[in-house]
Write a structure and sequence with these properties.
alpha/beta, Anaerobic Ribonucleotide-triphosphate Reductase Large Chain, 7-stranded mixed β-sheet, 5-stranded mixed β-sheet, 15 helices
């Protein structure tokens, strides 16, 4: 294992290759804030988040200066609000989202996650209230993120929830029509959601987690690409097995960086250290792209034949290196392919090299799924639900996390641009080859049963 001094030397070696800690996320349980009185509940959650997270940004900044590595995002994830606020109605849930947004702004974090529900097997009154509140809650707030888990390998796919989420996504997009449907960029529909995800929009604090815990999201696609480029320049005859080993070793170093930083922040805040999420999370910046790794490994672009094989290798090598570097690996841990957040992937979509169907194929081996995919504004709620159902099936059958963060951009068509700004970037709207034809299937509702591999006891 690397010593702290060796990790610091790694910082120096990689400092110009976009190595950073992508997010420090403080998970906070809100279950002890429970009350049937709305005003009391809002006060309780405001006070607890302020008390535990008030020094989060300052502490992260201090640790970043000490180690000379940026901590890009500081975030909070709370208990699933559908559980913590189960007595309240949809309009009251919107008020609660407003409190989360206000306290996030006061403590200086960029996002707060956990305005969500776990409905893979059915919906409670609180679940329905929260889901109905999502469009207004996300449209009226800046920093609140929402995730809804509608499927799992153990439970199957709750198609009633899938259908509802198709309608919710359409409503959220329409409420933020003037901003290209940006509310949908803060909403993710999951299968097999982990309880310790530090990345938005999926972050929330699971019911089996501590009262307060630090989870770290590392990154480093630029670091991985540079390592591959250096190796191939030095020895052009390296094969894929040898290149996989290089990716694994690089992931080891990046993971050790994340763990040391996370433990420092947790110790200073006096809370538990949780996990390191190994995910290669890109940004819209040049040189910080997962898509560029595909080119370094010999493909013209992500999306051309061979892309799924490369992504499978990349995901596996990242996990192997990270698992050796830390005993506390969690979250999603692999490679993200968010279309608008990765300049190279967004360009592949613009050129037509990445279709919705190819993206779906890639999600069978990546760490998330259909992520930040801009779609034509006229796509129907039923078609959205069908796309979500397909993505959930990939996760359920393969016993992995998959998700859909779909953005039907109001008033725009395939080939036009959607602009979200900042880390969310911009994207060419991808064509939906068949908008319709799934209505009868979607209308059947019910629950698609869990697959046979769920019987593991």
């Amino acid at each position: 294992m690397l010593t702290e001094r060796e990790v610091i030397s790694t910082f120096e070696m990689l400092r110009n290759e976009h190595l950073d800690v992508r997010t420090i996320t403080l998970g906070i349980s809100l279950f002890d804030c429970a009350s049937h009185d709305l005003e009391r509940f809002k006060g309780n959650i405001h006070d607890k988040i302020s008390r535990l997270a008030g020094n989060l940004v300052g502490t992260c900044d201090e640790v970043a200066v000490k180690y000379g590595i940026p901590i890009v995002n500081k975030r909070v994830a709370v208990s699933p609000m559908a559980v913590a606020a189960c007595p309240f109605s949809a309009p009251q849930m919107v008020e609660i989202a407003g409190v989360l947004d206000r306290v996030a702004r006061e403590i200086g974090i960029d996002f707060i996650g956990g305005f969500g529900a776990l409905v893979e097997k059915g919906m409670t009154t609180g679940d329905r209230a929260l889901i109905e509140a999502i469009p207004q809650a996300l449209a009226s707030t800046e920093r609140v993120c929402s995730s809804v888990n509608v499927a799992s390998t153990l439970a199957g796919i709750n198609m009633d929830a899938v259908v509802l989420m198709g309608r919710i996504i359409k409503a959220a997009a329409e409420m933020t029509r003037s901003a290209d449907g940006i509310a949908c960029a803060k909403l993710c529909v999951f299968a097999n959601i982990p309880q310790d995800v530090p990345f938005m929009a999926g972050a929330y604090l699971g019911v089996g987690e501590p009262d307060a815990v630090i989870n770290v999201g590392v990154s480093g696609p630029g670091v991985v690409r540079k390592a591959i480029d250096r190796a191939r320049e030095g020895n052009p005859r390296l094969d894929l097995g040898q290149l996989s080993e290089i990716i694994k070793r690089t992931s080891f170093k990046v993971t050790r960086v994340g763990e040391i930083i996370g433990r420092q922040v947790a110790g200073r805040l006096g809370v538990t250290f949780g996990v390191v999420d190994l995910s290669l999370a890109p940004t819209p910046n040049v040189g910080d792209s997962v898509g560029e790794i595909f080119q370094s490994l010999g493909l013209k672009s992500i999306g051309v034949p061979g892309s799924t094989a490369v992504l499978a290798m990349l995901n596996d090598a990242v996990k192997k290196g990270g698992a050796f570097a830390s005993s506390y690996v969690g979250g999603l841990s692999g490679a993200f392919i968010p279309v608008s957040e990765d300049l190279n992937i967004a360009e592949a979509a613009r050129k037509g090299l990445l279709s919705l169907e190819k993206l779906e194929a890639l999600t069978s081996v990546c760490s998330v799924g259909l992520d930040m995919v801009a779609l034509p504004g006229d796509v129907s709620a039923e078609t959205l639900a069908a796309i979500i159902a397909d993505e959930m099936a990939i996760g359920v059958i393969n016993r992995k996390t998959t998700a859909a963060r779909l953005i039907p951009v109001p008033g725009k068509k395939a080939g036009e641009k959607a602009f979200f700004g900042g880390l969310l970037g911009e994207a060419t709207i991808i064509e939906v080859a068949v908008n319709g034809g799934s209505e009868d299937f979607i209308g059947l509702g019910g629950r698609i049963p869990a697959p046979i591999q769920s019987l593991v006891n």
